[in-house]
Amino acid sequence: MAAGVTAPVCAQIFSGTNGSGTVVLSNFQTGDTPDLVIAAPQPPAPPVIASAPLASPVVSREADRAAQFKPLIQRVARETSMSPQLLHAVIAVESGYDSKAVSRKGAQGLMQLMPRTAQRFGVRNPLDPFENVRAGALYLKWLLDYFDGNLRLALAGFNAGENEVVRAGYKIPAIRETRAYVPKVLAHLSKPISS
Predict the structure, then answer these.
(1) Residue 62 annotated as catalytic
(2) Which one from 62, 94, 164, 177 is the annotated catalytic residue?
(3) The CATH number of the domain where 88 resides is what?
């Protein structure tokens, strides 16, 4: 670190239960504390001194779309008391910030809501970014409550449906897509949000 430059202090909290059933909180992830409860705010990016390598066009387009939807996501996060970082992570994995995305299975919009989920949370137009993100945030919030704050199970439920998680014995179901999805979203949680 350069002399005279200080980095902000950022904390994140992980939780879990150890072998004796005691709830454990930690500032780092371990086998006893696998679930991220509070994500650390991302420090501002340092100023660019040397010329940076060119970003790939795909990354650049996604970053541009992320920046375009950042105010909307911040608003929804405030209104629903959800983490904007979590909403960004889910949107990045679900649609790559493509508000018109439609999957082969019929999931739609930024948060790739299935028609029944969209209807359940009062969405009239699933391709409307505000309606889509708000319903997705409310569903995530519901899932976090349903699974007692277990972020991994909530994300698995978001991808496969809460009933699949229950059928799997309150574990991530043995569905290849879901098993890949949860770590992808968790990895995106640690990435800075485009400005």
Answers:
(1) no
(2) 94
(3) 1.10.530.10
